[in-house]
Amino acid sequence: MTEKERTLAIIKPDAVKRQLAGTILSRIERAGFRIIGLKLVRLSKERAENFYAVHRSKPFFASLTEFMSSGPIIVMALQGKRVIDDYRSFIGSTDPAQAGYGTIRRDYGTSIERNVVHGSDSPENGLREVRFFFEEHECLGDE
Ligand code: IDP
Ligand code: MG
Fold first, then answer.
1. Ligand 1 in reach of 60 Cβ (< 6 A)
2. Residue 57, domain member (yes or no)
């Protein structure tokens, strides 16, 4: 258990609205990621601001938090040995235009803001972000 990481994956409002959730979930499964928690939620503006608090001083903060609270999102906890880096490679760079071919953001993203998915950027943030959305009893154990 100790060396296993957790990442928070989000299917953002743009993707849910465009009915890409099933396709993206299917690609996550096919890529072999282990989903240990999953739910559909809608963030208030305030909760989106809390989630993205590290970006509070950025010029895109208001627009980002407006976007992230504009409709339902699907949040997932993924668990695995190198899941932080593996999942970030799978989704691609923040800007879809710069993301590698065959990545989720390259295939479906429409702008640097509307880049369809989120992934945590470090093991510490992975644990913190999973806890932001999930109680421990809402996640699968090691079975
Ligand atoms: P990441 O999601 O790849 O980790 P971050 O730099 O943490 O990228 O930014 C968080 C989110 O903020 C991005 O996924 C994207 O939706 C949005 N974002 C990042 N940079 C910009 C920008 O320059 N303009 C508009 N939105 C941005
Ligand atoms: Mg980030």
1. yes
2. no
- Give the count of domains, the chain: 1
φ and ψ of 62, to 5 deg: -65, -45
Ligand 1 and 115: CB distance under 6 A: yes
How does DSSP classify residue 129? H
Residue 112 Cβ inside 6 Å of ligand 1? The answer reads yes
pTM strictly above 0.90:
yes
Whether 130 maps to a domain, the answer reads yes
| Residue 59 is assigned to a structural domain of this protein | no
- pLDDT, one tens digit per residue, over 90-129 is 999 999 999 999 999 999 999 999 999 999 999 999 999 9
Q: Where are the alpha helices (DSSP H) in 3-60?
A: 13-17, 21-30, 45-51
CA of 80 to the centre of ligand 1 (A): 24
Report the pLDDT value the prediction gives residue 49, as an integer from 0 to 100: 98
Nearest CA to ligand 1 atom 11: 113
